[in-house]
Design goal:
The protein has 363 residues and is α/β, with parallel strands linked by helices. The protein has 14 helices and eight strands.
Length: 363
């Protein structure tokens, strides 16, 4: 749960430090109406003026939705409303673009920054056409990671914007779509953004805690982890009335909740480069262990299927020649080292015994 019991004094002190050191991008998932965007901007402005500065006010006007019947965004009409927000509250504005046409419109309306969504970063043709549209402009580009956990696709998209002369580029980590992810809306796979930071150490990186967490309660720990890994700031979805939002209702914070979340963060990262390098490798191992554990459980379920086929057709449960074939596979790939081979042999004995037990075989 969000920590909301804090002293006002601590809130101010902490946010002051945050202001000096971290980039904050906040605003609703989408512009929904003129009234909604003004009310949200006003609510954010009330909080932000007192506590910390906002680098960009974010708001989507073209929404890449899975279902064509869902709210698709207001479109070009909302650009004029965002111009008003800029004038009234002094916010720099950041909008998602997914085509060259969107990019041209943002330049025409004096939008300060654009973000490239995860569904766009996956497509080099689209990224290139947006980069060409923004050629040599002074606009800031925030490049979200692609949906799939592919660091090269992310780096490639960033390069396309660098190649057309853009100087203000920021990476945004919004999590990845991976199989068997039950906790987060989009799996953080922290080793990928941490590696990106190491490879592109002149590009600031933000963490989009809203799209990683997908709900309010997970956002604080995600933000703290990002700070610990040396991230330069956060992107957060904020709505004046999240329960009425037309998209991403569960993950949008009230402006006051954002202020409390920021206050709860410990801002100094204690991680060294060695910690981060170790972290990447440990995460790779962790992912392998998760796969091994899932694969073993799938293997055992198949073994039970095999037992029922054997029973149905009156075949012997124990078929030594079949087991020989299984062991060959493992021996082929085994590292040629005595200790490792002993490990594989011991593992195979256990695997075989367990498979036979599953099939109801006892000697
Ligand atoms: C968004 O920020 O509202 C959005 C759609 O993001 P993503 O591309 O990360 O899904
Ligand atoms: Mn959203």
């Amino acid at each position: 749960m969000l920590k909301i019991i804090i002293t006002k004094k601590r809130l101010k002190q902490n946010l002051k430090t945050l202001n000096a050191s971290k980039i904050i991008v906040a605003g609703p998932c989408a512009v929904e109406s003129r009234e909604q965007i003004v009310t949200t901007a006003q609510a954010i402005s009330d909080i932000y003026k007192a506590n910390f500065e906002l680098k960009f006010f974010r708001a989507g006007i073209w929404k890449a939705r899975t279902n064509p019947d869902d709210f698709q965004g207001i479109g070009v009409e909302a650009l004029a409303w965002l111009q008003e927000i800029k004038k009234q509250f002094g916010f720099s504005i950041c909008v998602e673009v997914a085509s060259a046409a969107h990019a041209h419109l943002c330049l025409e309306y004096g939008i300060d920054a654009v973000w490239i969504g995860a569904r766009t970063t996956v497509n080099p043709f689209l990224v290139q056409s947006i980069a060409d549209a923004l050629y040599n402009s002074s606009i800031t580009v925030l490049v979200k990671n692609p949906i799939n956990p592919d660091i090269n696709l992310w780096i490639g998209a960033i390069k396309r914007f660098q190649n057309v002369g853009l100087k203000n580029i920021i990476a945004v980590h919004r999590g990845f779509s991976v199989e068997n992810e039950y906790v987060y809306r989009n799996a953080p796979c922290w080793e990928i953004p941490v590696e990106l930071q190491m490879k592109l150490n002149n590009i600031p990186i933000l963490c989009d805690i809203s799209h990683i967490a997908g709900n309010i309660s997970l956002q604080q720990p995600v933000a703290q982890t990002a700070i610990n890994y040396g991230f330069d700031g956060l992107m957060v979805e904020v709505h004046h009335a999240p329960e009425q939002a037309l998209s991403d209702r569960k993950q949008q914070l009230l402006p006051s909740q954002l202020a409390h979340l920021l206050d709860s963060l410990i801002l100094t990262s204690t991680n060294t480069l060695a910690d981060n390098a170790l972290f990447i490798q440990r995460n790779l191992i962790r992912n392998l262990d998760i796969q091994i554990s899932k694969l073993l459980s799938r293997r055992m379920k198949i073994v039970e299927e095999i037992a029922s086929i054997k029973r149905k057709h009156g075949l012997p449960l124990l078929q030594p020649e079949q087991w020989e074939k299984v062991t060959e596979i493992y021996k082929e790939d085994a590292i040629k080292d005595d200790n490792y081979q002993q490990f594989v042999e011991a593992f195979l004995v256990l695997l075989h015994r367990s498979s036979l037990e599953r099939q109801g075989f006892s000697d």
